[in-house]
Design a protein that fits this description.
Number of strands of chain A: 10
Helix content of chain A: 55-70%
Largest interface: A-B, 154 and 158 residues
CATH architecture of the largest domain in chain A: Up-down Bundle
Oligomer: heterodimer
CATH architecture of the largest domain in chain B: 3-Layer(aba) Sandwich
Structural class of chain B: alpha/beta
CATH topology of the largest domain in chain B: Rossmann fold
CATH class of the largest domain in chain B: Alpha Beta
CATH superfamily of the largest domain in chain B: P-loop containing nucleotide triphosphate hydrolases
Number of domains of chain B: 2
Shape of chain B: elongated
Shape of chain A: elongated
Radius of gyration of chain A: 36 Å
Order of helices and strands of chain A: HHHHHHHHHHEEEHEEHEHHHHEHEHEEHH
Strand content of chain B: 5-15%
Largest sheet of chain B: 6 strands, mixed
Strand order of the largest sheet of chain A: 6-7-8-3-9-10
Distance between the termini of chain B: 64 Å
């Protein structure tokens, strides 16, 4: 798996963690030795307290050293987890950005956020607890075995032959328990989903007088869940029982076996007691590994998803022969451009010209390919066929970042960041002064409602802050565009969420914004389209008509149908 | 629950006994008695070896059983408390976000019993047991061991809690910030890239990440301290036992054989307290989860609990009267409705128009008794709507609104919500009239196709037609259309309106909209502006008077959609 490769980053921390674990194991052996010696002296030699004081002092000393090794191991394991997590998180986010909005849009974004947050955190326990424990489960029992063998061959053999039983059972159980765990987890998430569904649809349920009935349904679903889960758990617990039995019974076998040989005088007490104290510790690292197996599985699953994302090739390939940008009045041509979302075609050989300084409006039924054009111009996606040129140079030869600096983009659903209103506008020009921001907000018709927010321009907006309506969000995006002051303006249904009265108010400022710039306007309102120099009607992934408003009306084609559709409907009574 | 704790204590007691018995065998054997003297202890070792496993198995079974019972009751309790709050008291909570968190909170409480409640009880029982056992030898011995146990079981958790007192909160907050930054960076990636802010966003994520790492390292140090102190205290206890026992052995008060037994039993007893710092941490997250649940449960419903006559017959007619209704959502906010009055006779159609925020939806909320009004009077069939059981009142009103909620279940179940006992033929007829039947038959599973968040995603028009089928099946005398076609494109809108037309036949209709489409068919149109009635009349009349309605419709006629 790829995670092993990434582990190289934390190699030193991993070695330190394992080293400290081994030292703790050695100190445990020393501790057992001192303890059995002291007990031997008191029990059989009739020693006084003063006789064993040096032993007790060293026992405490060894204990303290072991305590240090344990806490050091904890800290260095965290260091390991952190270096790998930090590296992966930053790599993952950088890669998601490289994959671009075409990859992250829609339903996938939620899952990606989960991967970048929860998925990475799931690696924490995996790296911190599971990975070092795998090594320790091999080393520590080995140390104990090596100490026991010279002291008592028989006990050593008992340990040697029972030890493999634990990993063996663990693998057997792990396989079964893994499947059971998954099933139980699915059952839990299903029940939670049902609960969430009911809570979100509560108003609907109330309207149909079904909300009270849900009390019994929720009780029944929960109870059903309890029964099925317990069936699953019973098996899992039974497996754990078997595992535990192997460890305890082995300890018991050692105890009885040593006891009997003591009885016959083959072994002396001190050595026998030493072995007895070590026996449970011998099995402990293996059992701990078994307990952490779950974290291991969860971590491996999370890692798989993270590397899936990391290995997805980005769509936009940055080219090496990056040309310098053309002067700000450029001529854009789309020639026979083809694009498809998966199998769904969006543009079928579309050709379109955007002349310097003109206002070009794109109209047409939804799903016709209008937004795809803006995505291509922003280089969020690359054409599958045909080409886009800027002043006759291929667009993909221009450095993407500096090309985007030439564009001010107002999307239909702009994203508001968890930041102040001012910072959200500042996105358009990070170096903007407060006065510039307020001016931009004023022009976009946003100043009034921002001033009315609890802390004005300092009010936190976005997911966790004050809620803005779709129309208000669009005015923030317009303010960004005013601040941006770029030669090419792309308005993608930029006023769709505004009510007609508000739209009328800011239409004047939009007109001002378009002054002296090349503008691509995707719109549905006639007032915006009227003023365009040219209108291109897009349908079925192609340009079907182009021309000025009157010209198109005369053609009696798709445009005329669009303009009259509304009036026709208006005339139709209920 | 008590049984589970008892079983937990028995599990640890068995392992103490196992080690003690083993120590006894070896110590006794060292004195070379006959094998018969060891028989009891050998049996004991075998017994405790097996008992430990069996007890642990039973303990897990019993505690999980109890736990899931508790969770099931918790869900029912929470839902029962929440149900009367919807939707008025939940409106200011963030829709799905909060609810999703609540569901996660209830799942968090899954650990409450097994990891928070049981461990201290088990530790207490074991301490008691050790106290009795050791007192049988010497009281000072018992006190010394109990003191160290208390240090490990109470002192260490308190210390780690003190050291990490704000860490939990700060870390939760930092993690929240990191998640928010990642959410921004991923969901807002188009805006980030378009404005060339990739580096800045990455730097922001790195900054928060570094901060989180710092706290995580601090937590690791605390965990390390915890582990170190635990190991140290076990050691200290063993040393203390040896130091105290040695003089007693010499004095002949304790047999030499018992030295090993006491030392090992003491060390084994620490198993019960070493998990307690973890229990404290789980306690923190459980309390936070519980607090969030209570925040909701403690809200007061807007409708005071009230007894209604068991069986209320429907009124003889469904005339709807609003008289001087004034309403504010909170005491200090401006009125959402200000002295609004109108009469809608049974079988007539009334439209209420106005831009967003004019108070249109408030009217519907009051009629459905999601909120209660303060001034004025709303009557249905000649009686104040407050005299009806809200459940009955809502059974006479069908609503098709802009946000149709589809449940994660089959198309069939979603339509049958309108009337649970409808026959297959009735359901199909409703779907046919709502013009969705043909579409449903093309779905892979037909009426049994799974829809909703986890199933098939339906388009806006399809959702609205399912809502219409529901309303048709409900067959209520009063119909409320609350922005039922908002957000649909013009072609879809036309289809939905055709289906709505079927639904409106023979019903008393209250239509709320800001799209001035097809209003010629309404008997009366009210124009609301900032909570007040601005204009009223028929479509033709309002157009003629060239007021607000006229302006709104002129703006709208420019639309190309």
């Amino acid at each position: 798996m790829h995670l092993e490769k990434r582990l190289r980053i934390g190699r030193a921390a991993l070695a330190l963690t394992i080293g400290l674990g081994v030292i703790a194991g050695l100190l445990l052996v020393a501790q057992a030795f001192l303890l059995s010696r002291a007990i031997n002296l008191v029990f059989l030699q009739g020693a006084a307290l003063a006789d064993i004081l040096p032993l007790l002092a060293s026992l405490l000393g060894v204990g303290a050293a072991r305590a240090l090794a344990l806490s050091g191991g904890e800290v260095s394991a965290q260091g390991l987890a952190e270096s790998v997590k930090t590296d992966l998180r930053e790599r993952l986010y950088a890669h998601i950005l490289a994959l671009g909005p075409a990859y992250t849009r829609g339903e996938r974004s939620g899952e990606l956020v989960n991967t970048a947050t929860g998925g990475i955190e799931a690696l924490d326990a995996y790296l911190r607890e599971y990975i070092p424990q795998v090594a320790l489960a091999a080393f520590v029992p080995l140390i104990m075995l090596l100490t026991v063998f010279p002291i008592d061959l028989v006990s050593g053999l008992v340990l040697l032959f029972t030890a493999p039983l634990i990993p063996l059972f663990m693998i057997l159980i792990g396989k079964a328990a893994g499947a059971l765990n998954r099933r139980q987890w699915t059952a839990l998430s299903r029940m939670s989903a049902h609960f969430l569904d009911v809570l979100q649809g509560l108003t609907t349920l109330k309207l149909f007088q079904r909300s009270r009935a849900q009390i019994e349904i929720i009780a029944a679903v929960s109870d059903q869940f309890r029964k099925t889960t317990l069936d699953v758990l019973r098996v899992a617990f039974l497996s754990a029982l078997v595992l535990e039995m192997v460890a305890t019974i082995s300890t018991a076998v050692v105890a009885v076996e040593i006891g009997l040989r003591l009885l016959h005088g083959v072994l002396d007490f001190e050595r026998a007691f030493f072995v007895l104290v070590l026996a449970p510790e011998f099995y402990l690292p293996l059992r701990t590994l078994g307990i952490r197996f779950h974290a291991g599985v969860a971590g491996a699953t999370a890692a798989r998803r993270i590397f899936e994302v990391l290995e997805t090739p980005p769509e936009v390939m940055l080219t090496d022969n990056a040309r310098p940008l053309p002067p700000p009045s450029f001529h854009i041509r789309l020639e026979n451009v083809v694009y498809a979302y998966g199998d769904r075609p969006a543009l079928n050989g579309l050709s379109l010209e955007i002349r310097p300084g003109e206002r070009l409006a794109l109209v047409g039924p939804s799903g016709g390919g209008k937004t795809t054009i803006s995505q291509l111009l922003l280089r969020f996606i690359e054409p599958r066929g045909g080409q886009i040129t800027v002043d006759s140079f291929p667009l993909h030869d221009l450095p993407a970042d500096s090309w985007r600096e030439q564009i001010a983009w107002v999307p239909q659903n702009p994203y508001l960041f968890n930041a102040s209103a001012a910072d959200n506008i500042r996105l358009g020009k990070p170096s903007a002064t407060m006065a510039e921001i307020i001016e931009a907000a004023r022009l976009a018709g946003a100043h009034e409602f921002i001033s009315a927010l609890p802390s004005g321009y300092d009010t936190l907006i976005g997911e966790r802050g004050a809620r803005l309506s779709g129309g208000q969000a669009q005015r923030i995006a317009l303010a960004r565009a005013f601040l941006r002051d770029a030669p090419l303006l792309i308005l993608d249904e930029a006023t769709a969420h505004l009510d007609p009265e508000t739209e009328l108010l800011i239409q004047a400022s939009i007109n001002r914004l378009m002054q002296g710039r090349t503008a691509l306007i995707i719109a549905h309102r006639l007032s915006t389209v009227y003023n365009a120099d040219r209108i291109a009607v897009i349908d079925g992934g192609r340009v079907v008509e182009t021309g000025a408003h009157e010209e198109l009306l005369r053609q009696n084609g798709v445009y005329r149908q669009l303009v009259t559709a509304y009036a026709g409907e208006q005339a139709k009574p209920f | 629950m008590a049984l589970a704790a008892l079983l937990g204590a028995l599990t640890i007691a068995s392992s103490i006994a196992l080690l003690a018995a083993s120590a006894y065998i070896i110590a006794r054997a060292a004195l070379r008695p006959s094998i018969a003297d060891l028989q009891v202890a050998i049996v004991g070792v075998r017994f405790f070896g097996i008992a430990r496993g069996v007890f642990r198995y039973l303990e897990r079974l019993v505690s999980h059983e109890a736990n899931f019972r508790l969770l099931a009751r918790l869900r029912v309790w929470f839902y029962t408390a929440l149900e009367p709050l919807a939707p008025a008291r939940l409106a200011h909570h963030r829709g799905g976000d909060l609810l999703a968190r609540i569901v996660a909170d209830i799942d968090t409480l899954e650990h409450f019993y097994v990891r928070v409640l049981a461990p201290p009880v088990v530790a207490l029982l074991i301490a008691l047991l050790m106290g009795i056992f050791l007192s049988a030898y010497d009281v000072r011995l018992a006190l010394a061991v109990l003191a160290v146990l208390a240090l490990a079981g109470v002192g260490v958790p308190l210390l780690t809690r003190y050291l990490s007192r704000d860490a939990g909160q700060v870390m939760a907050q930092t993690r929240g910030e990191l998640n928010a930054a990642l959410l921004d960076g991923i969901q807002g990636s188009a805006d980030v890239i378009a404005f060339g802010q990739q580096e800045a966003q990455l730097a922001r994520i790195q900054g928060i990440n570094r901060q989180l790492s710092r706290w995580q390292r601090r937590m690791a140090r605390i965990r390390g301290l915890d582990a170190a102190l635990g190991a140290l205290l076990v050691n200290l206890a063993a040393t203390l036992v040896l130091a105290l026992v040695t003089p007693l052995v010499r004095a002949g008060q304790i047999e030499g054989v018992d030295v090993a037994v006491l030392a090992l039993a003491t060390m084994a007893s620490f198993e019960s307290v070493l998990g307690l710092p973890m229990a404290f941490q789980y306690l923190g997250s459980s309390l936070a989860a519980g607090r969030r649940l209570f925040e909701i449960v403690d809200e007061k419903p807007v409708l005071a609990a009230q007894d209604y006559p068991q069986a209320q017959s429907p009124p003889s007619n469904f005339d709807l009267v609003f008289e001087n209704v004034t309403f504010r959502y909170t005491a200090d906010s401006p009125p959402a409705l200000d002295s609004v009055g109108f009469t809608l006779r049974q079988g007539r159609r009334l439209a209420i128009v106005g831009s967003s925020g004019a108070g249109k939806s408030t009217l519907v909320n009051l009629l459905l008794r999601f909120w209660d009004y303060e001034q004025g009077f709303i009557a249905l069939g000649g009686r104040d709507i407050r005299d009806y059981d809200p459940e009955h009142l809502r059974s006479w009103i069908a609503v098709v609104s802009q946000n149709t909620y589809l449940f994660n279940t089959t198309v069939r179940e979603n339509i049958l919500l309108g009337r649970q006992n409808a026959s297959e033929a009735e359901m199909i007829e409703a779907a046919r009239q709502a013009q969705i039947h043909d579409f449903i038959t093309t779905l892979p599973g037909g009426y049994d196709t799974w829809v909703g968040e986890q199933g098939l995603r339906l388009s806006g028009g399809e959702r609205q037609r399912i809502a219409i089928a529901r309303a048709l099946l409900k067959d209520a005398p009063v119909l409320v259309l609350d922005e039922a076609t908002t957000g649909l494109d013009s072609v879809t809108e036309r289809d939905v309106i055709t289906a709505l037309y079927r639904l409106m036949e023979g019903r008393t209709v209250l239509m709320i909209t800001h799209r001035l489409t097809g209003l010629q068919a309404m008997d009366e149109i009210l124009v609301l502006h900032e909570g007040k009635l601005a204009e009223r009349g028929t479509h033709a009349g309002l157009v003629q008077s060239q007021g607000r309605y006229f302006k709104m419709s002129a703006l709208q006629n420019e639309s190309l959609r």
